[in-house]
Structure formats: C-alpha cells, structure tokens
Amino acid sequence: MGEILRLGLILMLVALVAAVALGFVNSKTAPIIEEQERMRRQEAMRTVTSSLGDSLQFDSLAVEGLANPYAMVDRRLAVVAVSDAVSGDRLGYTFVAYGKGYSSTVQTMVGVDSSGRIVGCSILYQQETPGLGANAENQPWIGQFEGKRISQCSVRKDGGEIDSITGATITSRAVSDSVREGLEAMREQDLFEGGERA
Amino acid sequence: MSASMLMAAVLASPDTGGGGVNVAKMMAIILGAIFINNFVLSRFLGICPFLGVSKQLDSAVGMGAAVIFVMTLATLGSWLVYHLLLVPMELTYLRTIAFILIIASLVQLVEMILQKFSPALYSALGIYLPLITTNCAILGMAVLNIDERYGLGESLVHAVSAGIGFTLALVLMAGIRERLETADVPPALRGLPITFIIAGAMSLAFFGFAGLGG
Amino acid sequence: MRLWGEFAKGIYKENPVFKQALGMCPFLAVTTSVENALGMGAASTFVVVCSNFLVSVLRKLIPRKVRIPCYIVIIATFVTLVDMVMNAYAPQLHRSLGIFIPLIVVNCMILGRAEGFANKNTVIKSLADGFGMGVGFTLAMILIASFREILGNGTWLAVNVLGERFHNQPVLIAILAPGAFIIMGFILGTFNILERRKAGR
Amino acid sequence: MSHLLVVVLSAGLQSQVDAIAQPALVLGAVALVLGLGLALAAKKLAVRKDPVAERIEEFLPGANCGGCGYPGCPAFAEAVAEGKAPPNGCLVVGPEVDEKIAKAAGQEVEESVKRIAVVRCGGGHSATDAFEYHGPPECASAMLVMGGQKTCPYGCLGFGDCVEACPFDAIRMGEGGIPVVDEESCTACGRCVDACPKGIIELWPAENDVMVACSSKDKGGVARKACSVACIGCRKCEKACPVDAITVDDFLARIDPEKCINCGLCATECPTGAIIDKVPARPRAYIDSNCVGCAICVEICPLDAISGEHKQRHEVDQEKCVGCGLCVSKCPTNAIRLVGALSYRRSEG
Amino acid sequence: MAEPRYFELAVSPHVEGHQTTRKVMFDVVIALLPALAAAVWFFGPRALLLVVLSVGAALVAEYASLRFMKRPISFVLDGSAIVTGILLAFNLPPAVPWWIPVAGSAFAIVVAKQAFGGLGHNIMNPALLGRAFLVASFPVLMTAGWIAPGRWQQEGTGLTTSGIPQEQLAEIEGADAITGATPLNIMKQTYDRETMDSRMGEGATEQVRESLSSGGTYLNLFLGKIGGCIGETSGLLLLLGALYLVARGVLEVRLPLSYLGTVALLGWVFGGSGWFNGDPLFHVLAGGVILGGLFMVSDMVTTPVTPKGRVIFGVGAGLITMIVRRWGGYPEGCSYSILLMNLATPLIDRYTRPRILGEVKKSG
Amino acid sequence: MGKLKSFAGGTHPPDRKHLSSDKAIERLPAPETVCVSLCQQLGAPSEPTVKKGDKVSRGQEIGSQSGFISLPTHSPVGGTVLKVEDMPMPHRRSGPAVLIKTETEEGGQVFEPWPEFREHSPEEIVERIKLAAVCGMGGASFPTYVKLSPPPEKNIDTLILNGVECEPYLTADHRLMLEHPDDIILGMEILVYALGAENVMMGIEMNKPDAVELMREKGVEVVPLKVKYPQGAEKQLIDAALGREVPAGGLPLDVGVVVQNVGTAKAVAEAVRDGVPSLRRLVTVTGLGVESPVNLDVAVGTPFSALIEKAGGYREDVARLINGGPMMGIAQYTDEIPVVKGTSGVLALNSHEARDVAEGPCIRCGKCTDSCPMKLVPSRIARFAEYEKWEQAEKQGALDCIACGTCSYVCPAGRYLVHYIKRAQEMIRALRKREA
Fold it and tell me: Are strands F47-48 and F55-56 parallel, antiparallel or unpaired?
C-alpha cells in the first residue's frame, strides 16, 4: 500500500507543479486572450455597422423571449443595440449567428439597421474546408448580404438571393440560414420598425 | 458530488433547453460523425491506429469496438469534469491536461475491470485498450464536444457515432489491405504508402455523403 | 560532433514522419498551408524539446510504474502553455490550427521521444534529440504543405507562384483530406524509391 | 519577519496566488486519485503470462502508438516473444534498443561465421532443356510439370523463385541463367533456401571461396550429357585436395567448408568446371631469411612448388604456388608469408 | 527410327476458352459506342473530342506508369485503359474544358489503377475515382457545363436541359431559375416543397413533378434528349450496348439487375415528396443510373466475384444512390455509391464465399 | 426428352469427339518391347519380382503389392526381361519399370475362370479383383478393390457406372459401350454383387445417344446427362444422378455410392469370368496433330510412338502430346513413354488447338466462380497460392478442388488457376505432413 501511495503522491507532485506553472501562465495570458477576443468582436461589430454612422455606441440588449435559434450556445440571442453615440438614436443591431457548417460551427457577425435590412456581415469563426467553405470569409461572398432583407436571406437553391459558394452549398446555407433565423427571431420580438412583418 | 448537482448540471446543458431531443439535429450529428466528418477520413483523428491496426480484419473489428467503448466513456467523463468542475472553477484552460489524465486512467481502469470480470470480453477488446490512450481521436472527441458546445446527450451520441465512423473506416481498410496482400502493388508503394493512397480514395468516396442530414 | 548527430538524425535518418510514421494526425491535418505547417512545427518542436528536457532531468526521479502518466502530464503542461501563448500572441494561427494544438499531447512522436530517448539519455543529448526531431517534423510538414499549398491554392506561404489563372482554378483536392492522404502516399513511395536507389549503390 | 512576508505576499499577490492555488489543488487532487488508481492497476495487472514478453515490454516506449501494427506495446512484446514479430518492429525506439529487444527475445543468433547463400548449380544456359515449358514462370510451377524443363533433374530451373523470395534484393538472375547472390546484401536469412524447389541453395560460409556448383547425383555420363558443367564424380578433386576436404558420393563432390583452405587446387583439376573458385587473385608464398631449411614445407607442399638445399633458405616456385598457405602454418620458424594480392582477406587475417 | 520428336510441356488444361481479357475489354468498348454516337449526336463533336482526349490521356498515363515501374508495356493494349478513358469521359458534363478529361484520366490510371498494381488489382473503379477527383478538385467546372441537346434546340424543338419542353416549363411560375438544371437537380428542389411552393406559388412542386414524370419526359430521358453527362443521355443505346455484352457473356446480370431494381424500389419508397409515392421509372431513367448500373456497377475488377456478393453489391449501391439523391448534397449519388461499395467489396467477397459442394457449414 | 440431369457450374469446351467417335476399336499387337511401369496406379509402386534375363509368361506377376493402396503388376506379354530400372513415364519424369522383350501374346489366363461368379463369395471376388490388379480406367487409376472394400459402417446402396466420358476428344469409353456392352453389363453385375448394392445405374452424357439407347435396350437403367464438363467427375456425377452431395473431404461411399468407370467394369468382367488380369486398355489416339484418329486396344507398356504410328503419324503442325484428355491430361515432351493403365487417351494437339495464352492479371470477372463444379472461388485460392499464403488457400477450400481445369479453361485472363491450386494442395499436404 505504501508503494501505491508513493506512486500516487509522485504523480500528484508532478501534476501540482504542472498546475502551478499553468496557473501562472494563464494568469498572464488570459487577460490578453480575453482582450483580444473582445477587440475582435468590437472590431467586427464596427465593421458590419460602419455604414450606419461614424461614432456609434454598442449596448447589449436584454429582450425577454428572444430565442436563440442556435440554442447550443445560449438560449437567448445576445443582441447588441447600435445607437448614435451623440444623439443616442437607435440605428440598428448586431448579433452573432451560429450555423452548423460542413465541418464546424460558423459564427457570423451580423449588422442590421433598425428596419431589419442587413448592413454588413463578417465571419467571426469558421473551420470549413479551405478553398471551398472557407471562402465564405471572402468579401465577394459575404459582402452580398449587405442590403438583403430577411426573406432574401437564403441561398438561391432555397429560393433566396444569396449565391452559394460553388462546391460549398452547406457552408453557404449555414451562414445564410443562421443569419435569417436570427433576424426572424428578432422580428418575432418586434425589434424592427415597419415593413418587416410576417 | 451529489446526485442532484449532477442532475442539475445535465439538465442545464443547452441541448435539453429546447424541450425534448431535436431529432433532426441528432441525425445531423450521427450522420456527420459517421460519414461526412469521419474522424479518420476527414478530420485526421486517430490516423496512427488506423494505419497500424488495419492490417487484419479481426484486429480491426476489435479495435473498433474498443474505440467506440472508450470513446463513449471518455466523453462522459470529460464532459462531466469539464462542465461540473472546470467551468464552475473557471479552470477551463486545464482541460487538455485534465482530459488526457481522465482518458489514461479510464482506459487503465476499464482494462482492469474487464480483465477481472469478463475475461472473454477482455481478450476480444482489452488488448486494444492500451493503444487507445494515445489515440488522438479520443482526446479530439473530448475537445470537439467542448468546442462545438454539445450537451451531454449530444456529446454521447457524437462519441458513439464517431466511434462507429472510425470502426467503419478501419474495417473497410482492413478488408482492402487483406486483399492487397495478394496484389501486385509496386514495391515502392507497398505498406504505408498504398495505405495512405487507399485512405485518400476512401476519403474521396466518402465525399458522396456530403450534405447528408445537413 | 556527437550532439550534431543526435540532432541530425531527426531530419532524415530517423525522421519522425517519413521514417517512423509518427504524429500523422497533425501532420496531415494542418498542412493545408506552409504557414500552418510552420506554426504547428514550431509548437511541436517547443513541446518536444521541453518535454525531452524535463523528462531527461527527472528521469532518475520518476518511478517506472507511473512514468507514462507523468510524461503525459509533463507534455500536456507544455502543450497547454503553447496553447495559451499562441492564443494570446498569434490568435490567427491559433484559430487555424484549432483542435490540433491540444492534440499535440497525443502526438506519438513526443511521447515516443520522451520514452524512447530522453528517458535514458543525458539532458544535453535529449535537448539535441528533441530539437532534431522537432525540426525534422517541421521540415516534413513544410515539404507536404508546399505540395498541398502550391497545388491546391497556387501559392507558397501565401505568395502566388503559379500565376493568377492557376490560383483561380487550382487542384482543390490537394488541400482537402483525400489530397493529403494521396500526396503523403506518393511522398512515402518516393522516399522508398530513393532508399532503394541508395541501397542499390 | 516571516510573518510579514506572508502578509505581504498574500496581500500583494492575492490574485496571483488564487490563480495558481486553485488549479494546483484541482489538478493535484485529480492526479493523486488517478495516480493511486494507476498504481493499483499496475499492481493488479502484475499477473503476466510471459516473462519474456514482459522483459521486452520494458524496452518498449509504452506509448502504444500502434505503429508496429500490433495493438499496443504489450501485444507487440508478446508477438516478439512468440517470434511472430521482428524484434525491430517498433518504429519508435532506435537500433540500440532493437538489439536489446532481440536479445531479450533470444532470437539473436550471433553468427560467428558470416554465411551467404550459394547456388549449387552452374548449369543455367550450359544445361540442356529437355522440353519447352508453357506455364507460370516460376520454378515451383515448372517443378510440377515433369520436374521442370531441364534435362538435369537436379539443376536450377532459372525462373528466379529465389530472387522473388529474397527480402533484401540480394539475388538477381545472372546472365548465365543462374541466380547470382550479392555477398554484401545477403543476410543468410534462408528464404531463398526454402523457396528453391530443387533445394540447391545452401548457406555457405562467406569465407569459403571455393565450392562445388553442382548438385547432380546422376552418373557421370548422364550428367555430362545434360549439362556441360556438371560434376561427373571423377574424383580428381578428391585426389587433388591437400587437406582431404573433398569427398565424392553419389557421383557428386562435396567440400567440407571447415577443412577447406581455399587453395583452389580442386578447381584447377576439375575437368568440367563444376568447382567454382571465386578468389580473384591468389597470393604466393614467400620464404624469408628466417628459413632454416628444415624442408618441412617441401614435404607439405601439395604442388611441389618449394625446393631448396637442406639447411639453406628454400625458395618457392611462383609459377606453381597457388597460395594455399599450408606451408605457412607448418613452418617452425615463421619464415613463410603469403604476399601479393593483399586484398585477399585470408592473408590479411 | 527417326530422330526423337520433343513437344512443348504445359500445365493442364490444354485447350482454351473463347474469351480473353482483351476481347472482354473491346466488347465493352463496342458496347459503349452507340452511347458515344448518341453523345456526339446530341452534344456535337466536342463530346467526341473529350472522349478521345480522355482515352488518349489514359493510354499515355498507362504507358508512362508501366514504363516507370519497369513492367511489361504490353498491358497498355489490353483495352482496359481505353474502357476507363471512355467511361471517365462519359461521366463529364459536355461543356468542360479540354484539360479536364486529361487530368481525370491521368489520375484514374496512375492513382486508382497503377498504384495498386494495375489491371485487376485496383480496389476502386478508376473512372469513377477519376470523376470523384475532378468533382473535388474542380467543383465549379464539374457542376456547371450542362448543355441542352444542341441539335434539337437549334431546330427549335424547344427542349431544355431538363428534358421538359420549353412551353411546359414556362407554365410553371418562376421556372426560369431551373432551366439550366438537369432533371435530377429539379427533382432535388422539389423535396423541399415548402420553399418551392413559397417561391413559385402554391402547387408548383406538384406541377414540376408532373412535368418531370410526364410521358414526354420519360421518352426524352430514355432516348437521351436531355442534358446530362456525355455518356448518360441515352438509356436506350446504353441498354443496347448492355444487351450486346450479355449476349457476349461479358456482362453478368446480377449486378445491374439488383442495382436498378433497388433504385426503382427505393425510388418508389422515398423518391417522391412523401413515402411510397415516388416515381420509380423517373429515378431509373434520370441521371447516371443506367450508365452506372450497366457499365460501372458491373465493372468486374472492383465488384465481388461471388454470386451472392454481387447481389449485395447491387442492392447496397442502389440504396446509397437513393439516399444521396434524396437527402445528400449532390443531385446524383450513382458514382459515389459505386465507389463506396467498391470499398466494401473485399469484405463482401470475404463473407459471401459460396458453400463448397458437400461442405457442411458449421453452425453456432 | 425432359430436362437432363446435371450439376451446377461447369463449362462446355468444344468436345471434338467426332474425330474418333465412329472409329471401331482396333486391337494393336504388342510391340517388340513393352515397358511396364511398376507404378500403374495411385498409391505405392509394386516391388519388382523379376530381374534382367528372366523369362516371363503373359499375365505373370512381375511386381508384388506393397502396402494397402497398391497393386501387383503383371506382364502384358510373354518374353524376356531386358532391364529393371527407372524409365521415363507419362505421369512423372521417371519411375521404376520393367522392360520386356515381346515373344508371345498367347496365354494370360492365370487365375481360375469363374463363369458363374455368384458361386463365389463377394470377398473372394474382391480378392480376385485385387490380384488381377484392376484399377480405375477413367484416368485416376485408383485400385478398384479399395473402392469395393468399404468400411463396415458404410452402407453402399448404389453403384453408378461412369460412362460419361466428359473429357473432350476421348471416345474410348463410348466405343467400348457400343462394342462390348455385354462385358460391361457383366462387370456391372459382378460389382453390384461384390458391393451388395441395391441400385445400379449408368450415367451417360447425351452426346452419346447411341450408347444410351443400346444400354437401355440391354435393360440397364441409364441416367442421361447434360453435356457439360466435368460431368464425369465422381462428385458431380453423384450430384447429378442422385442429388446427393459427397461431403467435403469425404468419399462417395460416405453417401452410400460407389462409382466405377465402364472400362473398369469390363476389366472386372475379364478378371472374374476369364481369369485374366488387367493387361490391356482402350486408348483413344486423337487430336488434330495426328493423321487419322483411332480407338485402340493396346497392351499396357506399349510406347506412345507405336500408337501414334497406328494413327497415321503426326501431322506437321503438332505441338503438344498429352496423356489423357485435354482438360486434365498431362503434357509429355517425348513419345518414348509407355501406356499405363490410366492412359485413357493419347492426344496430339496442333498449335491451333493447344492452349497458348499469355497469362494476364486476374480481372475478377468471376467466371471461374460461376463455373466451378465444386463451387469454390478459384481465383481467390489461386491468388493465395500464388502469394504462397497456403493457410488462407486451405481456408478457401483448396483441398476440395478436383483439379478439373474448368476454371483455367474459362478464364479470360488465361490464368493457370488449376495449376496454382494444385500447387497449393501439394504444399498444404506437405505442411500437414510436416506438422503431423
């Protein structure tokens, strides 16, 4: 039994040292990572809403019952309200759409104006096939979402106005469907003015 | 850890939020893991045993079964540890080290239990267990489940399906390699090279499943 | 010099990928571009050097029976370190390597070196060995990544090498999974032919 | 003082300590539990069947990578112990460890004499064909059809089953229609010996450069008719051999490699060329001034190549001497050396 | 007595059957010629050019690899490379650039065939693997490039690539979006009834389906007056070729029958928008099923040799074809289904060894 | 005519029996010297009992039985022994033989004639058949008495006389049935009596309708069989005639059946009724390589060259000489070899008839599987054999192969399938022996 205890303790010792080292490094890197993540989001939010104005203010919005179509992340869709930093007028929203792509969950940052028209999209994260699905990140494709309304926001095959990436229908569909579903969820909660009713 | 805590954690897992299991999503996970994103052929996980244990059909089947078994158990263990221990304590950065420890000890434990209580099963599966510790498919599965934010149920389904997918690839490969034993493969390509080429061809054929369940 | 020998053997004679078929998973998965290959190579080299070092230092202290778990913990620690550091300072690379960073833990090459070499050799030798293996691994990855990136994207380290027309219509399969397998198969075959030629002389 | 330090530390590095203590605690606990479990397992698993396998396992990495084709290191160790797997099957460990494994498995038969495969037939194109054979071009197949196409029932069929069988590419089909063994590459593994349906390949000491390249047990006339280089059992070699290394049975000469001194006399005597002498150039005996003229060498020389006055320094007739070296070993004053053709390995040793 | 006479010695048997590998291969080539003629008729000389390029590339690749491996060059002329070349070209859309068949053939011969040891040793159908390679490598080129049967369009018969007459298609609202698609593409869209209806008005799905299943379309499908791959247009002529092969004893009927039968059955079971209301005839006639079923499923080298195994292969391939058609990402699953079953062939062979005469199977 | 009985698989090689089917049997006088093999049959060779210079009479024993499956050897002529040594043989490179200078062809009756065989017990009859050295005349030369001495626990209910003669070209049995039906019928009765069988039938392929008719007229129960190779193989014949499957690795007597060739029946009749041992046999000399094919009644030990001479000599383009039929026969490189009891035919093929295909790789067409009468997968066994995987070859049923050659015949790739399998059989048996 003593032998066993000794072995266990040695392993514990090693693990202890490892944990200490990791804890130390983590305490140094975690904030950087967090900051970076935040910056990226911020940057993405700014990019997708750049057409709404120059000085914008972002506030997260709590709407009861705003269901996240992709419930695996969060049951509530985290919508950020975009308003003019000066006047405080609400100009639109941003949110992150999650769509199950070919080999990863594609995250798209979506910017819409207050009427529900998309003003910009950019891919936050994807691990799709290089050369195919990964091309979703590229401007010519993701750029076509700009100006689209909810009903147009699906691939042509499904009757929408989004051209699929050749050979990567699944990724195309994942992005457009997830964006549309997010918008639909917001529409349900009457977040958009006029026009966009069911 | 009390049972109620466990229950709470499981219930709190996202996938049960929608009320009831989403069949379509489950199908997507299953088909995805077996065919579309086959661990070996598409995600490049578990290549070493895939190359190593695919020489004979018998061992391929045994290995496959062992992988399914351990993968499921490891997923269960790692998911619980991650969501009940690491997440609450904000120690998620320890996941790699924690998972590998869990997997290693789990394999050992299973081996021990099997040997003790079911010698028949041990001789069929047990001999493959040691090989699984360093099978990146298992660790990959644990990490993927976290990255994909799967709930416990989904994770388990994912694990079983991925294991089946792995077994499928392994068994097919073993059959082909047995046949190639008596084929006129150019000497330079015999052994590993041709195995890679077959894997490539298999991977290409599996493209046919693209979009299934999606 | 002997140390040079320990280092150099990893590059061709005992190349972990081509001669020992180790570390295949990351090898195939991340070699879609030379850049990724470099990143993965650097990370793996770091881990194998560090783990070789530590294992060699501790080789007298760790009892045989728990040596594997201990090595795994040591390796996992360094992998997590790399994970965190890369995430902090090279987030783009971190994202594209994805799941394969934590999976360095189960790269047989690293455990293999720890157990097969560092376990019974001096610290300095183990460092040389680890470095050699890491560099060998990296070079191997760069080799296949070059094939894949040039064929599959028309670029090398993101520089367009085969002209615009090819870049727009590359042989996509090279960066897809089947391409990885098939190219690897033919590279190994070529190595076999070279070996034969050498033996024939 | 120390108290102060603790206070300062805990105050100043509060967050830092928290960030480190917590993981340490968790991981330490996990590791302890697992370590205990593993150690317990190791103890429980101590029931091993094969001590050899266990010893081999000691040398293995234990990474269970599967690269060897076996499910894990223990399985590989067992396979090696049972002789099913080659000792160098592990891809991870280096050659030094391979050796240790081989030793543990007891498979390493350290050969004192390097042996190589030799083909006991010189026939090939010199041997006549009895008929034309239509079938799979393999010796084993031809063998099934009336024992092969050669008139000589003992001779090489020349389809190269041995070439196919050699895992080291050490055999190729020579121009004479007889397989040629590359001495450097041959490892004396014996695959070719098994592969030859005529059983005319033999493992032969590499040092023995003189051998009978014929297996025919037919009577002289019959053998001669079938093949121009057949051993006809004339016994000339038997008589020529200075060391009685040759015996002729069943109309076939046989050299005892233990006794043979590579002098090549038999080869020169052989009327059909059935004895092959591979020595490129022979040295000659040289008698130096240490010679006391005892004439022992004169007695011993099978070729009468040494002559000289009694108590005078003797001389070797360079024309007659074949460098057999018999005199060298017998000279009481060590006055005789073999010179010339120094590349010849015997003279070096 | 005169001088003794010596005879050649050979293993038994001493007489030979009438078939040789080369005859078998050239029979297949002959059987494919009518369909080739149809392709040229419908798609113009370009189809012929593509086939010639493909065959040429296959032969060159075969020659080069045999030379490289220092194997007897005579195998180049055994006809198998020609068959591979033709079949590969038959699986291409008629408007692909000229280098596509060249690349595909080279891949098919080098990777799918010679790397495995050449004729008889390959695991997967080279032509299909070549096609899969092309689809994966050049998805844009391989999924576009359909052309409507040109000759008829020029003469104003108003046919479209889908085989549905122009006027009829025009009746369907918003149908302009689908004129460039093959029948299977259209069928695929009708699976999502909701979208289809919402886009083109209530009942559009049914309307399109009806058009697809109309007698005219059947006839077009059968005769080949539709868009599609070079070789898959004319079911009639393919069938003719297959009958020739059956008559020559080259084609074994178990494979094609079980395959086509399964496709038809499953086409009925879930080939429609619900269950058990599909159109079996449509599913058999559309796309590459006839080409695949008659000439690829029955590729000797890559399919099982045992009678039972052949049936299993056919059924399995049919099942996968229909699953891909109904639920998969590609409109056509024929070629992939065959490749996938090719992978399983060694296993099927292994487990379907016939009972040896007098053998008592061990039970339990 | 209803559906003819047959078995599953098989093939239809061109039978070319018309070359000799209407040629009546001619008796060929013994040549100047006869070379009698001491190993006429399957099993151990007999021990020579004569030496150089000895005078022998026709029918005298010149070799004695040695071992269970073995037979004595008799001199087919009266004369002087010239030498006793190894000589070239049709089934092996060389074997022990006795060379006898022919002086007379008189005599031969060395046993007491038993015109009424029923006066003797079945055991006595079997003993007589053994002493008379009767062995299977179909080609395999299995000692007949062994087949007639089943272990007591096996109940033999049926005797099948094999008049199928499915090997292409050969017509000796056909002629025999037409010309000596009574001898055959007598032999059949003796065999039935010796075996105590209840049923007896004769299997004849429908390419010999005249023989079927004649036998029926004589009151024999004939099973007309579909013309298909290898209809005459024991297991296939039993399957076709009775629907019984001989278990793998087993013998016909495991299903209560004994099969005997019609020629054997005649030899039995002569041994019992006339007291003459088996000294002669019928040989079809045919093929496009000889001028005029004939059916001959020759003394055992007659050289092939004498038979060829009788058939008008070779034609210019003769390429191959075969002992037996074209499917299973053994090629010979010289005609200076003697007729043995298993020589059912001497076949001289010209270069067009003789198989000469370059062996190509297997294209897995499955024709061998479809046509294998034993329902094996020959291509697979051959593959395993080619790559020397004997164990797997055995698992695939290599030992069940009857070496009929159908697979090689139908193979479009010209693979030497049956040859590989035979090699595997030899290796497997050798390995088994080594293990035992």
Answer: unpaired
